[in-house]
Predict the structure.
Amino acid sequence: MNILITGGAGFIGSHLTRALLANGETVAVLDNLSTGSFENIREFVGHKRFSFAIEDLNNELVLDRLASQADAIVHLAAAVGVQLVVERPTETIETNVMGTHTVLKAARRYRCRTLLASTSEVYGKGVRTPFSEEDDLLLGPSSRSRWSYAASKLLDEFLGLAAYREYGLPVTITRFFNTVGPGQTGRYGMVVPRFVRQALQGEPLTVYGDGEQSRCFCHVSDTVGALEALLNRPEITAGEIYNIGSGDEITINALAQTVIDRADSASTLRHIPYSEAYAPGFEDMRRRVPDTAKIERAIGWRPAHTLEQILDDVIGYERTQLLKSVRRAHE
Ligand code: UDP
């Protein structure tokens, strides 16, 4: 299969690229390197089934050419990370809504099988956990810019489902819950790479709020496995929305302690009020747990990695990165 991955130089996109190439697929990556990085795809350059274009999604000519050569599109390109979303709300809305609109237009032209990435953010402040795909969604007020991310991705979902219903385009929506693993940057707020780096450098781990908020962390290779399986099953998954995440819930305090233990670090925890950690307009979620029964029923997927395995992987990766930067500093 020829697969176009928008946002392919991002964290999930580059892991997906690696897996697809290993399985014999042909992959084209489209990425403007806004939050993705060339480092993430450098290893694929020169591979005979890999190509890339450093371009914006709204370059319709490039997108059209790439879509015309693709059997499937995995649309991952989006403004992501809470910090970025709060700091640059206009860019978030424009990238997410217009980008998806352009991708779907191109997909319709060439009848591409399409996976659209959405997010657990769309469940908003819902208090009934676990979150299931048919649940009502409860977003905060528009005066708080965090919710613009959820609203923009929700509009993406509506656009995708409309393309399926009105034009028969085989679109599947994936709602990612917290996804982590080697190669994720902490620059845009993601907690696991931040904690791991702090622990390895002997700095205090910065826990926001009281730290009793909880999340479930899924290994990126499990997430990628779900995407590959969904790609291959349009006949049962087109027009559907699936949660992708782990059901293993942990508080941020407990996560911080587990990182310290596994990294064998002497770091301590430092609690920081939300008002100091984020720009105004931020509101945190207390709990976020996915119900993944639907995707398990459809394609038999469930995550395989434990939190300990995930953290060991990230710690190993970050140790190597730190060593590399120390060596570079001495060269
Ligand atoms: N968080 C934290 N310290 C950090 C970064 C994040 O305590 O350095 C908290 C954050 O407030 C949230 C949780 O960790 O409650 C997960 O944050 P992340 O940005 O990784 O994901 P999301 O908020 O999108 O679930």
